[in-house]
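Long-time lurker, finally posting.

We've been working with Oligopeptide/dipeptide ABC transporter, ATPase subunit (Streptomyces violaceusniger) and I want a structural starting point before designing mutants. I don't trust myself to interpret raw outputs, so I'm hoping someone here can both generate the structure tokens and explain anything notable. Sequence follows.
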Amino acid sequence: MTTLTKPDDGATPPPAGPGDGAFLSVRDLYVRFSTEDGVVKAVDGLSFDLERGRTLGIVGESGSGKSVTNLTVLGLHDPRTTTVSGEILLGGQELTGAPERTLERLRGNTMAMIFQDPLTALSPYYTVGRQIAEPYRKHTGASKSEARSRAIEMLEKVGIPNPGLRVDDYPHQFSGGMRQRAMIAMSLVCNPDLLIADEPTTALDVTVQAQILDLLKDLQQEFGSAIILITHDLGVVANTADDLLVMYAGRAVERGTVREVLRAPQHPYTWGLLGSMPRLSSAVDEPLNPIPGSPPSLLSPPPGCPFHPRCHYTDQVEGDRCATERPVLPDGRGAACHLSAERKQTLFTEQIKPRLG
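Top reply, 14 upvotes:
Generated this for you. Predicted structure of Oligopeptide/dipeptide ABC transporter, ATPase subunit:
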């Protein structure tokens, strides 16, 4: 990854210092991809902190920068086409611009990731047990027999039946839920301090979803890991995460504890996400209420607030600030929106909350 000076593309808040007690601290992160069509501004001045033993949920529509951010933390982007600037501190160690040798030592050991699609993330050429044992051998120097025993132990821990036999199976011999469990076992085999779970319950039935989320909670309690949960499912976040970061067009637009954000959201985009969720109290034939329009192109994001072309409330902000001035996300609890705090409260109480039920 390459470090460079911060792009000058709008007024941005000065980077805050790392949060007290934060194990992972991301400050003023920018990620740019060079393509034939131009430069994609995938992450645009993002900052957040995560402490040990806590789970941070990151939500937003596809293309909002959730996965790109966390792949950047692990240093998994192609440096030939990717430009990264900002600060990523993991346990006090700077990762931005770190040598590949340093990142390889950390990946799978201090930090690990559960990828969204285990069928493509797992190699079809090697047994599940071998793929779990390989990072354990690399980072601990264990023998083949010790690593195999550890792989069996982890398969048992994540609930795979007959782990002593299934350790020699290939990924295609596992069901979708079992492959996801195997991915979790591979990610946790070295007891990482930071675990990134990218849509860990996608395409799984609700029973298996609940089992996997309970498993992540149990393993966090056992190992004390910090967890980043990337998802578009606010129901999953509500039951799993401690803190919540809402992303849109590569930027953080709202953050706070899960309780704060879900009970009293402050950004129109968050209102739209909550309003688009189906409810048990709704009639069977009641249509869903999607956010109008489409996410902006990150090749040429709109000036000012990136959400303003889709926002219903720009006429309640004085002048054309929404279209010309980038709103600042305050430290701690808050939202990057030009609406006044009083107006947000009134709108939420009178218009949004009744619709949310």
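Before you design anything, note these points.
The first strand starts at residue 22 and ends at 35.
The first helix runs from residue 66 to 74.
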